[in-house]
């Protein structure tokens, strides 16, 4: 990373123009985007494993419990863009961030006793928030950059999305494994406890996302 930054700053044709990180609002949007994506991939790891190892569901049933939320998130994503077009960025992004915080908090509160119906309900709520937050955060963030920096900004968002996915999966899997090794005992109880600890970490991150999105809206340039 140090080498990349050094070379980029002295290159006549840099791969990424690092001047985009001088835009405060862009940085806040990017931070929120990263934290939401960490939660999305972290939960995508936790929930199927929880349903199988704690609740004793088959892999097929575990996937079917998550399917309704995923479908709703996919359907709502285009409508999230229409909300931004009609009402501006703040309303969908902040509303979606509050919904995400509520959904992850509910997952955490019921972490030791999640059932299939609870997973369906909470995950639908999560994907509702995701559908009106993710794309709009990226759109609003890129809107803070000048035209000549938008291609670089798009590259940064897409690269960070991949990195956030790897980060979220790694964090929750490591947390669950560490807790399992420490508590021992029945596998179902150990996985439930490890998942709850991982969910607490995700809840903290999603609350930080809400802070980042508020700052992004406060510092963004007006349309």
Q: What's the total helix number?
A: 7
From the coordinates shown, what is the CATH architecture?
Up-down Bundle
Low-confidence stretches: none
Count of extended strands: 0
Q: Given the C-alpha coordinates, what overall shape results?
A: globular
- The CATH superfamily name is MFS general substrate transporter like domains
Give the fraction of residues assigned to helices.
Answer: over 70%
Element string (H = helix, E = strand): HHHHHHH
From the alpha-carbon coordinates, what is the Rg to the nearest angstrom?
A: 19 Å
The third-level CATH topology is Growth Hormone, Chain: A
User: At the first level of CATH, what is the class?
Assistant: Mainly Alpha
Mean pLDDT: 90
Helix-strand layout with pairing:
Layout: H1 2-9, H2 24-53, H3 59-87, H4 90-109, H5 116-142, H6 150-183, H7 187-219
Helix pairs in contact: 2-3, 2-5, 2-6, 2-7, 3-4, 3-5, 4-5, 4-7, 6-7
Keywords for this entry:
Growth Hormone, Chain: A; 7 helices; 0% strand; mainly alpha; 223 residues
Explain what you see.
By secondary structure, the chain is mainly alpha-helical. The chain is 81% helix and 0% strand. The chain contains 7 helices and no strands. The chain has helices at 2-9, 24-53, 59-87, 90-109, 116-142, 150-183, 187-219. The longest helix has 34 residues, at 150-183. The radius of gyration is 19 Å and the shape is globular. The two termini are 34 Å apart. The model has no long low-confidence stretch (mean pLDDT 90).
């Amino acid at each position: 990373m140090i080498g990349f930054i050094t070379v980029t700053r002295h290159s006549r044709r840099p791969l990424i123009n690092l001047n985009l990180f001088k835009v405060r609002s862009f940085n806040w949007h990017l931070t929120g985007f990263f934290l939401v994506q960490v939660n999305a991939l972290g939960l995508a790891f936790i929930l199927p494993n929880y349903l199988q190892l704690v609740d004793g569901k088959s892999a097929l049933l575990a996937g079917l419990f998550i399917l309704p939320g995923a479908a709703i998130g996919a359907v709502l994503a285009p409508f999230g863009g229409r909300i931004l077009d009609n009402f501006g960025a703040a309303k969908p992004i902040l509303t979606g961030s509050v919904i995400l915080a509520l959904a992850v908090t509910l997952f955490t509160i019921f972490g030791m006793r999640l059932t299939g119906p609870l997973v369906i309900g909470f995950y639908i709520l999560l994907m509702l928030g995701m559908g009106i937050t993710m794309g709009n955060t990226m759109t609003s963030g890129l809107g803070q950059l000048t035209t000549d920096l938008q291609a670089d900004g798009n590259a940064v968002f897409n690269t960070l999305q991949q990195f956030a996915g790897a980060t979220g999966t790694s964090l929750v899997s490591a947390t669950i494994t560490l807790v399992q090794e420490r508590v021992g005992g029945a596998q179902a109880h150990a996985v439930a406890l490890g998942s709850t600890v991982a969910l607490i970490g995700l809840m903290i991150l999603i609350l930080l996302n809400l802070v980042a999105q508020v700052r992004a809206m406060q510092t963004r340039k007006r349309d």
